[in-house]
Amino acid sequence: MRLLHTSDWHLGRAFHRVNMLGAQAEFIGHLVATVREREVDAVVVSGDVYDRAVPPLAAVELFDDALHRLAGLGVPTVMISGNHDSARRLGVGAGLIGRAGIHLRTDPAAAGTPVILRDAFGEVAFYGLPYLEPALVKDEFGVEKAAHEAVLAAAMDRVRADLAARARGTRSVVLAHAFVTGGEPSDSERDITVGGVASVPAGVFAGVDYTALGHLHGSQTITARVRYSGSPLPYSFSESEHRKTMWLVDLAADGEIAAERVDCPVPRALARIRGTLEELLADPALARHEEAWVEATLTDAVRPADPVARLAERFPHTLSLVFAPERAPDDPDASYARRLADRSDQEIAEDFVAHVRGAAPDAREQGVLRDAFDAVRADDVEREVAR
């Protein structure tokens, strides 16, 4: 069976001030063409179909168009909700839509109930694990601790139990939306940290033939059987080195995997350039970036006059301007910036406590801070779900 694995469409999202709807529509056309031309047997979409719980009307219309075009090909599609989607909204009409071959899996309680597809060698069971927010699903899965690994492990126990009851030789595919240990994140993914931990080990998915992951925006292979497709379009400058692709996966009769990356159309290259304003305007090596979307980091000790207008003369598609003046190591501003760089909210809070009272928080106090951050985050998630 030939699968096309994609995820993280983020329909309705912009790239800085650039409307990406046209590029997203071009991707949908490319997806449909790939399904037809490469004789794909099933499409899997591993979450974050939309960029937010209540997407703009234009994004909903594009999604509707995608569903109609996929259904028109007669190729089944299995799709889960991600942490950006409203599972309830995405799942509306799932039963009816399923009759057209579009299988929406947005209910955590149905994690162990697969979509069964068939090829010449027998059945393939597709298990959809929508994004599992630990605080909201821990009771459903009967786990004591609201943690990503605990709820995903419990969901996978249901998958393996169902699979064990099926005919010998039944092949299996799991769709999941999670941060798996070993994956490389980018700046455009929403933080899903709970209890100070965001990732889960790949071993959680043991026992299935292929795990089609969503959430991280870079295409990557965790193991031969556990892969991220990545987002089809860039959504932050941290993705400037990404090659945007989908996975074309051949699932053999014995469950062996062969995977190939299929490139996605990207509207414009990304470039991150750094230096003083005069250096950026004069450096001939930067000529290759003149038509790219640019993030420019200026290192001038004093902020230059009209930097945006001057940069735009050479780089007309400059979208982001960052000021990072080069300072002496003993400069207090430089020292503070270094202390904050790449620090989590938890670490910054702990540093603040240590600064105020002269002693770092002990283990109990660290737990109080962690619980406070988790509670705020859980409230945000519940408000998003309720919208």
From TrEMBL:
Residue ranges occupied by any Calcineurin-like phosphoesterase domain in the UniProt entry: 1-91
GO biological process: DNA recombination; DNA replication
Stretches assigned to the Nuclease SbcCD subunit D C-terminal domain: 267-355
Keywords per UniProt: DNA recombination, DNA replication, Endonuclease, Exonuclease, Hydrolase, Nuclease
Function: SbcCD cleaves DNA hairpin structures. These structures can inhibit DNA replication and are intermediates in certain DNA recombination reactions. The complex acts as a 3'->5' double strand exonuclease that can open hairpins. It also has a 5' single-strand endonuclease activity.
The protein's assembly and partners: Heterodimer of SbcC and SbcD.
Listed name of the protein: Nuclease SbcCD subunit D
Species in which this protein is naturally found: Streptomyces humidus
